């Protein structure tokens, strides 16, 4: 290509001095300093690897090269990197002292030195070197016709050793490609633990050779084969990521009990036959896969030896698939209803002097510890497993907060004070559609609690859970990204890195770059909007989606039955995301205007209001041939109505009755339409009240 | 959801009478008649299956329901369909007389009867019923607030029994999810043969347990596991699709010979050592995986018994993965250079009285027939295998045409006259970026050749080959779709269905609907443009992409070395597609204007010209921070320059020197920029010359 040659020469031209504020690195490194000058990228850019790294470095370095290639369109001469010291003269020299282990507490540090003619990446382990390559990719700059790296020195290491993302493959099954691209996303922001929620009321997702009934009866044909699991574990390890599997017991048991009702806790009296032939039979409850969302009663029977036989056998088959040290057994949300109503279980409690269901669950969980220890696995569970007799070897996964009637992070403090290692998820529930600022403000290290250094050390880090009641493979990425990158920064960077404006600015570029990994968080929107618009071209629908956010918390699917697990979720709410882009920008425009009512600041605000007036009119036209647009019209009208009045007031300087304004404004404070809310309400309120 | 209830009632309101011209069915059915009235869709819509179908019907019916669900946002109550006669009262009744075989000549017919209260889909086999469900999905209509099917009767069957798509997984490896979504696309347009090109100079893509060297040395780690292959074969069969694997021999042999150089044809004299210690050694040639595109010399040695031992053993392992009756052994583009220069092979020819390399290749191919017959497979090969002593059992894949110095389809006629069954691919090379009208005009049944009925019957059908030298998983869909749907229509529908305007109109909707299958042909564009623009918002780049088409034929990568097989292909040419949308629409606008110079017709033309003037200015702004936009500026400028002059002439009624116009016009007839051409050149020419 002719213009490649052009680049070759052009790239030596002026590259203005870059400042730290211009960098879009995330997580922000522990130390970075910039100097004058730049390293110019050319088609002949090459990578050389020395030292004694694990083989994963070759996969990593080749992927690094291809991504840089794709961004720059340079199509470097170097193809695959498969061995040590292949190109001693290469401009990028990567040295690793030793192979890294995929485990907690591994040395993940690296140092990156960019000079005008050479880049040196040194790390103790290849895992650190992988992180360094991600930083280098994020440091890429460009002029109008060339790409370069700024001369700089970075030395970096993580603050917490557990920087996790959980994906629920049970509610909506997430195929292998979805998992893989999200592992790539994790690696790009230096996350290192993938918690894979594989079993829940809605499905069993692990191929079982000794217990095929679990997939035959409880997966709808949607499961990961053992080969696929091994392949994903390898894929994760190649990216420095540890996989922690979860089989959720004893609650969330519908799937297991669909296949093995005999170990369920419920015993029911059934009326069989009718009329004179009718009789009452006490028989094993039949269970079915759950199709709704919520907390359900099906629970394993802790008094039945068969329960433990089955679980032990399951662990024997599943544990070898996961070489990592941890196994998550869930343990959450067991309400014990079926235990209370089962006389046999009540007897069992008495016999074992178990005062309540908590102690009964502890009894149950304690049986699992040796089953896992046999495979060198430590048991991890949601905070409910932390009862008074629970082994101190268990890792406590802290998740409850205000929504569960508890102080946020309380269980984390309780855990470390009680001698348990712990991981924080409360505050990181990305499925709940809160804005990025909320998650970014949550720190695993409690602020106002005095902890000893020993106790602090038990706080392993944090993890963002992505539950999948309301997402499909087409929408999950837009729920995970880009917000999870902010959580990754919280877990990696210094606790002092907290500037939300800097985060927001960097997140735009980070989000854009994540797309090169195949993540669909940006482009999935287009296809879904095309369906809603019935293939009609229009900016109006996009404009509306940029000021709407899905209902937050558990309000969208409040009774858990509005959407089934097989619902394709192709609605407007599925297109919208937290941090609606125009809403964020409009808020800034309003703040600017209220601070300084210059003509320029005013015109920005007015252009938004005009856009929404036009949007409403365009949406009405669109809706003539698009049934799925109909439910959005009332929402659009509300925004148009207040916009028109504000235009009269601000643009035309007319006197507008404040009661009229307030009335129209409050109509925008609604959750009644299409499972979304108008994210501009608060900004509009500022304008109205100004 | 409140609006679902709204739909329930609204859907009973007026639905205007639909005409055949409004239907967006493709391939067009053999018989379809519309009557007044409609079947209204409600949330309670259900499917029931009766008869004796193969189990694949349950997968198919469940998928059908989910797709209808996603389109309408109704989220039907019915979840999974897993057995016969589950819902006897269902509105959609599907009956199949018997299970279908995944084979040629299977009965694929169906009849579909839509009445206001009931839909009946009858078919001999489930394969026919699957086709009927696709037709039903395509018949979906809507009012402003409801969805319905028009009352109608359809009876349908295919014209040809081989309606194929070939995907080359060797040049650029195409992961499982790419294959699966394209199988879904094939099923949506009733194609039934997936030809999987699995081996070429650039890679061996089949996991081999007995010959692991093939993947260890010749796949770059990119291959399909045997489990994945079985899984894909099952996935295809569930959609009525037969999989035909291809291992291309004896040419295109670099990958096989990288692992097994000892069966290569080349013997080289090597200088080993230097100075006094130097000596000449005759030794086995070392082969490497090919990274470029083109025709290469590495060829298996037909005189070496080890060649046949290896191939026989390979077939023994690969054949059982594919239950279908056909195995494609390639056989193309063997230039015989290494045969000519190898004395041992020349001796072998003499000994076996093989007059030339064609006869030698025939000798080679004939050895493969019993290896395949052992597994009940018929041998298929590209037309080069058709030499005078070739077995009549072989199926001839006709591919050469003008580009290969041959009359298009000549080998097809030769084949059927010679007693061979044959499949046409010449004219269906979708990787070459020709417009849909070109492919649509090609009919497997030759027009001007007298053939007996027996000879005609040997024409099995046609197949669209998608070679992957210049595509990646991110771009392949946009090369396959939507044009392949037009080829599917050519192969299914009556030979009289040839109206290109009707095709173009229907193709817009078909293309849109294919997106629901996860195909990325529409939305991949957005992500690539975001990269080129360096994440700057702008319509200009999109506007330019809508008037540009990638260079056609083999001109883009003419020496085969500009792009390597590991090049990520993220350039502007990779975003552009044949049938550039604005170019097609502009041509119509020009035709309308030249026919009737009304103000309205003129304003449409003028708005395009104005758009391109503004586009050029916007692109210049964009390019200040986007190196990948730079190479597009000269092209944009050429379009702007002629647009400005035409605006002066048409809009301002000024006298513009025709030599100036012609000069600027011819600058638009260029292939010099960014591997694309301006698809509006011909339309501009009409305007200039008017």
TrEMBL record, chains A, B:
Residues 23-146 form the Beta-hexosaminidase bacterial type N-terminal domain. Residues 160-494 form the Glycoside hydrolase family 20 catalytic domain. GO terms for biological process: carbohydrate metabolic process; ganglioside catabolic process; glycosaminoglycan metabolic process. Residues 1-16 form the signal peptide. Gene3D superfamilies: Chitobiase/beta-hexosaminidase domain 2-like (3.30.379.10), Glycosidases (3.20.20.80). Keywords: Glycosidase, Hydrolase, Signal. GO terms for molecular function: beta-N-acetylhexosaminidase activity. GO terms for cellular component: lysosome; membrane. The active site is at 333 (proton donor). Belongs to the glycosyl hydrolase 20 family. This is Hexosaminidase. It comes from Flavobacterium aquicola.
């Amino acid at each position: 290509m002719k213009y490649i040659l052009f680049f070759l020469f052009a790239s030596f031209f002026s590259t203005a001095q870059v400042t730290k504020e211009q960098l879009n690195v995330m997580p922000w490194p522990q130390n970075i300093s910039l100097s004058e000058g730049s390293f110019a990228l050319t088609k002949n850019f090459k990578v050389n690897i020395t030292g004694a790294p694990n083989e994963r470095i070759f996969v990593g370095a080749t992927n690094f090269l291809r991504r840089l290639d794709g961004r720059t369109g340079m199509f470097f001469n170097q193809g695959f990197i498969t061995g040590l010291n292949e190109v001693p003269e290469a401009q990028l020299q990567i040295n690793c002292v030793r192979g890294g282990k995929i485990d907690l507490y591994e040395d993940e540090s690296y140092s990156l030195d960019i000079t005008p003619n050479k880049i040196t990446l040194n790390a103790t382990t290849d895992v650190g070197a992988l992180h360094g390559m991600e930083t280098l990719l994020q440091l890429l700059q460009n002029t109008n016709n060339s790409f370069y790296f700024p001369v700089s020195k970075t030395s970096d290491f993580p603050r917490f050793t557990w920087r996790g993302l959980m994906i629920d493959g049970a509610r909506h099954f997430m195929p292998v490609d979805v998992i893989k691209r999200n592992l790539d996303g994790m690696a790009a922001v230096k996350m290192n633990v993938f918690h894979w929620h594989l079993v829940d009321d809605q499905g069993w997702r692990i191929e079982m050779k000794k217990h095929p009934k679990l997939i035959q009866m409880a997966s709808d044909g949607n499961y990961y084969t053992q080969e696929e699991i091994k392949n994903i574990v390898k894929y994760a390890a190649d990216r420095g990521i540890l996989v922690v599997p979860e089989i959720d017991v004893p609650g969330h048991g519908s799937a297991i009990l669909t296949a093995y009702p005999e170990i369920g806790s419920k015993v029911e009296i059934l009326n069989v036959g009718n009329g004179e032939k009718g009789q009452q039979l006490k028989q094993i409850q039949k269970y079915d896969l759950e199709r709704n969302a919520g907390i359900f009663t099906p629970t394993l029977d802790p008094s039945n030896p068969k329960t433990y036989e089955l679980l032990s056998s399951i662990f024997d088959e599943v544990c070898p698939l996961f070489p990592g040290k941890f196994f998550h057994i869930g343990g959450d949300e067991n309400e014990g209803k079926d235990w209370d109503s089962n006389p046999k279980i009540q007897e069992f409690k008495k016999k074992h002097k178990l005062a309540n269901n908590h102690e009964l669950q502890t009894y149950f969980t304690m049986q699992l510890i040796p089953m896992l220890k046999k495979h060198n696995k430590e048991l991890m569970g949601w905070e409910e497993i932390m009862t008074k007799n629970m082994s101190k070897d268990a890792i406590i996964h802290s998740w409850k907060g205000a929504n569960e009637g508890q102080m946020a992070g309380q269980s984390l403090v309780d855990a470390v004070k009680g001698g348990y290692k712990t991981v924080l998820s409360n505050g990181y529930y990305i499925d709940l559609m809160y804005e990025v600022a909320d998650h970014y403000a949550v720190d695993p290290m409690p602020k106002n609690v005095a902890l000893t250094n020993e106790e602090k050390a038990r706080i392993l880090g944090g993890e963002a859970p992505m539950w999948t009641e309301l997402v499909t493979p087409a929408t999950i990425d837009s729920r995970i990204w880009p917000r999870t990158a902010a959580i990754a920064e919280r877990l990696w960077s210094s606790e002092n890195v907290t500037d939300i404006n800097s985060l927001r600015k960097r997140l735009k570029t980070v989000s854009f770059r994540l797309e090169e990994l195949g993540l669909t968080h940006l482009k999935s929107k287009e296809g879904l909007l095309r369906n809603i618009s019935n293939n009609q071209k229009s900016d109006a629908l996009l404009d509306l989606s940029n000021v709407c956010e899905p209902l937050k918390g558990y309000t969208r699917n409040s009774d858990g039955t509005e959407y089934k697990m097989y619902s394709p979720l192709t609605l407007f709410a599925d297109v919208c995301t937290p941090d609606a882009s125009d809403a964020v920008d409009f808020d800034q425009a309003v703040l600017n205007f209220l601070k300084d009512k210059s003509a320029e600041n005013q015109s920005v605000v007015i252009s938004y209001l005009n856009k929404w007036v036009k949007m409403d009119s365009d949406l009405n036209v669109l809706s003539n041939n698009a049934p799925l647009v109909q439910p959005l019209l009332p929402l659009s009208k509300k925004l148009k109505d207040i916009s028109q009045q504000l235009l009269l007031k601000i643009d035309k300087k007319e006197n507008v009755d404040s009661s009229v304004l307030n009335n129209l404004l409050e109509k925008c404070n609604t959750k009644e339409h299409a499972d979304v809310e108008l994210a501009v309400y608060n900004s509009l309120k500022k304008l109205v009240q100004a």
